[in-house]
Amino acid sequence: MKKKLIFLGDLDSINLEIIQKSHSILKNEVQYILFGNINEISKYFYKLKTNLRINEIYDPINFFNYKKNSINIFNIHNVSKNKVENLINQIRITNKLANNLGLDLITMPINKSLFKKKISFNGMTEYLAKINSTKTKMLMYGEKFAIVPVTTHINLNNIKKSVDKTFLRNFLKDLLNQINRNLYDLNFKQIKFLCYNPHCSEANSLGDEDKIISQTISNFKKISGPFAADSAFKKIDRNNLFISMYHDQALIPFKILNKKGFNLTLGLKYRRLSPSHGTANDIKFKNLADITSYIACMKF
Q1: Which of 186, 206, 187 shows the shortest CA–CA distance to 196?
Q2: What is the domain-level CATH number for residue 59?
Q3: What's the CA gap between 281 and 105, in Å, rounded?
Q4: What pLDDT, on a 0 to 100 scale, did the predictor assign at position 198?
Q5: Are residues 9 and 103 in the same domain?
Q6: Cα 234 to chain center, whole Å?
Q7: Is 124 exposed, middle or buried (0-12, 13-18, 19+ CB in 10 A)?
Q8: Strand (E) or helix (H) holding 272
Q9: What is the pTM of this model?
């Protein structure tokens, strides 16, 4: 049976509702432990009016006293009155355990704006790179196709700086090496790079960015393109990987066309997955949360 660790993320969210609604589906396929403050989790469960019981785990390394018909929690005491400091402590603990045990780590959504007020923080993918002293990449994996953005959570004004032959060559070299590690058992038959400008710059009349991209990817036999982004997704396959220069260029079609999409982090020693939904605190306790992406993470 699969074993997974779950960083619970922000409780001002639908995270626990999704976990509670999914438990009966997963309990015979996956053993998983939630990491968070057990008192806060208990209060949330009380509001959900769930019949599921909480079981406190004392040994998360060996899953000692695990109960499949309960929600199993390893209690992490709060280190501060500040939510962000507590969440940082929780992710550091779960990251360390995932590294030591080689188990999958599911990270549930957080409110990034809260983190940005306290620390330099662009997203969990980047933060995990920092605390593990490595380079990470965000690969969004769906039942219809997958995507990797070259730049993730940055201002659009800064994206052009990354259209650089040296930067792109190193990025693509790292990407192929990380995919070939086969940590996630990935097998992409086609890897397609999207154009930066509309219509691939219309013979460079809109700029030379796509010329630079074309010259760079010509050194990589497995990567083709660049392809006009406005038509590239007309032909898709579950074994296709699209590379985009910026986040929304590929994330928008990905989230529209894939119903079971989730986030994989390349570059770590363990498998880190995250559902593609946000905190969605506006629908908290309304029984409206969609469990599809979370279930896909847990079964992957």
Answers
A1: 206
A2: 3.40.718.10
A3: 23
A4: 86
A5: yes
A6: 25
A7: buried
A8: strand 272-275
A9: 0.91
